[in-house]
Fold this protein.
Amino acid sequence: MQVITHFIMTEKQEKILHSALELFAKEGYSATSTSKVAKHAGVSEGLIFRHFGSKEGLLDAILKEGEEKAKLLFASIVFETNPQLVIAKTIDMIESLGKSKEGFEFWKLQYKIKWETEKYSEQKMEALHMSLSNAFNKLGYETPDIEATFLLITMDGLATRLCLQESFQVEPMIIFLRRKYKV
Amino acid sequence: MQVITHFIMTEKQEKILHSALELFAKEGYSATSTSKVAKHAGVSEGLIFRHFGSKEGLLDAILKEGEEKAKLLFASIVFETNPQLVIAKTIDMIESLGKSKEGFEFWKLQYKIKWETEKYSEQKMEALHMSLSNAFNKLGYETPDIEATFLLITMDGLATRLCLQESFQVEPMIIFLRRKYKV
DNA sequence: ATTATATAAGTAAGTACTCACACAAATATC
DNA sequence: GATATTTGTGTGAGTACTTACTTATATAAT
C-alpha cells in the first residue's frame, strides 16, 4: 500500500477516487461494493486495495481531500474583517454548493457520511463559528454565540434540502436571509 | 406473507420491528443484515421473511408506523387556531424529540433513511407548512410562506444536530427561537 | 382439518480482501 | 552506456465469509 501524496497520482488512482466519490454519494458507502467501484473506474478490484489498503482507506482518502476543499472554502470567510461580509459570505456559501456537478456530489457525500458513520466534524466548523460569533458581537447582537450557532444550523438545514429535495429553490431563501441580517 | 394490521401482532412480530428500528437507526439500513435483526430479536431469520416479505418490507412497516406517529404529533399543531401557539408548538416539537429513548431512535431512523434511500417526504410536512404559513400571515409577517419554510428548515437543522452531535444543547436554541418569534 | 406461526438447514450470489504473477520504470553496479 | 536489481503499477483468479431469501417440516391455534 502506498501513501497518497496528493501531487503524484496515477490516472487510475484518480479514476478510482472519482468513481468512489460518485458512487458513495449516490448509493451510500455501505451499499457500494468495491467491485462496483472497480467496474465503474475500469480497473481491477485488487488495485483499489493496492492503493488504498481497504474500503475504509478509500473513503478516508476522499474525506481527506474534502477537508482541504472545506478549509479553502472557509478561508475567505475566516480572514474577513468586515463583520457584515463575514455573514454575507457565509450565506453565499450555500449558493456555490450546487454550482458544479462534482462540487455537489462532494458535499452530498460529506452529509451522507455524517449520517452513515456518525462522526460529526465539529472542529471543522469551529473556525467558522468563531468568525461568525465575532461578527455578530461587533454588530451589537445580544447573544452572538447562539446567533452564530443558529445561522450555521440554518445553513445545515438548507444544504440538506438542496441535497435531498430536487424541487427546492434556494434563491428565495438566500434573499430572505440577506434581508434578515441586513447584509 | 401477511398483511400487517397494526392491531393484531404477535409478540415476535413486535420484537422484530423493535429490533429492526433500533439496529437500522444505530447502524443504518444497508449495514444491518436480516440475520443481525433476527439474532437481536431472538427469532429465526426466516420469520422476518414470513411476516414482512423482504428486508425492504420490514423497513416499510417501520416507516408506516412512523408516518402515523408523525401525523399524531402534527395534529395538535395543525388544528390550533391561535397563530402564536402554532409557532410555539412547532418549536416545542423538537424538545419532545429527544425525551424518550424509543422516540429518539425513531426520529433518527427517519432522518437516516431520508439520506440513505433518497425519498424526501415533502407531503408529510405540507400540512405543517400550511399551518405555519397561515400563522405568520395572521401575525402580519411580510413573506409568510418563506418564513414558514425557513422555520421548518431550522427545525430540520436542529434535529440533525440533536441526532449527530451528542454534546449539543437544545434548550438555549429553543429559548432563542421563542424570543425571536415572540411566542 | 385447516390455517397461522415458527424453525433449521439450506441456496446462489455477493462481500471485502489476498496472492501469485506479469510488466514497466527508476536506480544502482560494472 | 549497457546490464542487473529493485521498486511501483497492474491484473485475474482465488479466499473465507456474509448476504437476502427459500424450503421442507413441525407445532400451535382456530
Summary: Chain B has a mean pLDDT of 91. Chain B touches chain A through 30 residues (CB under 8 Å). Chain B is about 75% helix and 0% strand. Chain B has one domain: 11-181.
